Structures are given as C-alpha cells and as structure tokens.
C-alpha cells in the first residue's frame, strides 16, 4: 500500500530573472513501512524533495499525495496541521532545544502540536524514551549528552506523535561510524515496532546499504532506482 505518490512533481525557484528547476517532473511511489533513501550530489534536489514531502514547501507543478492527502493543495495552516498529525523530522544537527530536558524535548510536539493531556503525554514520552534507550537520561539537558544520545532523543521526538512518516535529512552526518551504525539500527527497529516509513536524504553509504529502495537524484531528476530483493 502506497503512503506517498508523486506524479510529474516539480519545484522551480526564481533567482532574479532566471528560473531554477530544483525538481524536474519526478514520479515515485513509497509504500507504508518502507526504509527509503534519496541520494545524489549536493544540489541534486534531495532536500527540496524532502521539504515538499514534509509539507515545508509546495510543488510548482505535479501531484503529491501523502497518507491519502493531496498535500500540494494545502495552505500554510493546513500544512502545519497535517505535519503535526502525520510527519516527524530528524536532522543532522539534532535540533534539540538546549534549555529543555530530554523529557521536555520529546514532550514538546505533544504540547505545541497536538495538546495531549499531561498523563497521556507522560505515558507516551516515557514509552518512547524507553524504546530508544534514553529513559534513564530523561532529566538531562542536551549539553550533557553525546551526539548519538542526542540523535536517539531526536528519533523519539519524531515518533512521539505516532507519526506515519519520518523524514531524516543527513541524520548520521555528525556522528562517528560506530554511533552512526547504532542509530541506523535503532531506526530500523523503530520501523519494525511502529510500522513507520523512514525516508532519508543522505550521502552516507551505511544508510544506502541498509535502504530497501534507493533513488539517485541528478540535477533534480531521478536517474536511477535500486531495490533490495526481499
């Protein structure tokens, strides 16, 4: 079953008098529970594509359906609501709020986006922190954590709203190879546990090797698709 369907999807930016086509009429389907990577050189359109899937940017043309919704037709407020209900994000620089504890960082989307009651929030946050191995660090600040621990917290935060989809932009870029491998394994186990779809923008060969489907982008077009035989 498809979670994401893109048809003739494109994105054009205006740079002065010049129209720059960042994404050039791409087509793809991504199934529920997939582990997918978009790869390619800098400027190939990877981040632009993730931003459109994540409703952070709107397509210039074509159709994009995520979880049964035509996200290309959403206005800014509708897109924010849709993100909060369906999509989690993991970034290469973690994007944790430095003055909040581990617990508070993971809890934050439940307060700001979904406004869950306190008891329900606590149960959900502690279950996610336990799942990523960070329950004992709940009261620590981000400055007291290693890079790998910060990314574990970021993964818990991405999943805490029961997201159907997690978008990860270079999630292992700031990690050493051993820690990066552990983070990849953690994301795979979270996919198995919650049937969440993970989509990566990456240069990391370790993620490429673990991905079930890899799309190679060149100059805004999908040049190649590789699938791991099941």
Question: Given the helix and strand composition, which structural class is it?
Answer: alpha/beta
**Span between termini:** 16 Å
N-to-C SSE string, H for helix and E for strand? EEEHEEHEHHHEHEHEE
Report the C-alpha radius of gyration, rounded. 17 Å
The main sheet comes to:
6 strands, mixed
Kindly report the spatial arrangement of strands forming the biggest sheet.
6-7-8-3-9-10
In DSSP terms (H or I, runs of 4 or more residues), the helix count works out at 7
- CATH topology: the name is Rossmann fold
What share of the residues does DSSP label as strand, in percent? 25-35%
CATH class term: Alpha Beta
Mean pLDDT: 91
Uncertain runs: none
The CATH architecture term is 3-Layer(aba) Sandwich
CATH homologous superfamily heading: P-loop containing nucleotide triphosphate hydrolases
Helix content: 25-40%
Number of strands: 10
Indicate the overall shape: globular
Concise overview:
The protein is α/β, with parallel strands linked by helices. Helix content is 35%, strand content 30%. The chain has one domain: Rossmann fold (3-Layer(aba) Sandwich), CATH 3.40.50.300.
């Amino acid at each position: 079953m498809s979670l994401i369907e893109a048809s003739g999807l494109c994105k054009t930016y205006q740079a002065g008098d010049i129209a720059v086509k960042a994404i050039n009429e791409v087509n793809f389907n991504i199934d529920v529970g997939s582990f997918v990577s978009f790869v390619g050189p800098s400027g190939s359109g990877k981040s632009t594509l993730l931003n459109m899937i994540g409703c952070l940017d709107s397509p210039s043309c074509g159709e994009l359906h995520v979880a049964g919704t035509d996200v290309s037709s959403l206005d800014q407020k509708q897109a924010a609501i849709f993100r909060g209900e369906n999509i989690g994000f993991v970034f290469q620089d973690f994007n944790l709020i430095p003055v909040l504890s581990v617990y508070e960082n993971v809890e934050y989307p439940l307060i700001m986006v979904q406004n869950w009651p306190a008891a329900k929030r606590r149960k959900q946050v502690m279950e996610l922190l336990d799942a990523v191995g960070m329950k004992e660090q709940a009261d620590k600040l981000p400055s007291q954590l290693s890079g790998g621990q910060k990314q574990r917290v970021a993964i818990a935060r991405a999943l805490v709203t029961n997201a159907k989809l997690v978008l990860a932009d270079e999630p292992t870029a700031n990690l050493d190879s051993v820690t990066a491998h552990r983070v990849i394994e953690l994301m795979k186990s979270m996919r198995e546990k919650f049937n969440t779809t993970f989509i990566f923008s990456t240069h990391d060969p370790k993620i490429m090797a673990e991905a079930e489907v890899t799309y190679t982008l060149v100059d805004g077009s999908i040049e190649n698709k590789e699938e791991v035989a099941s």
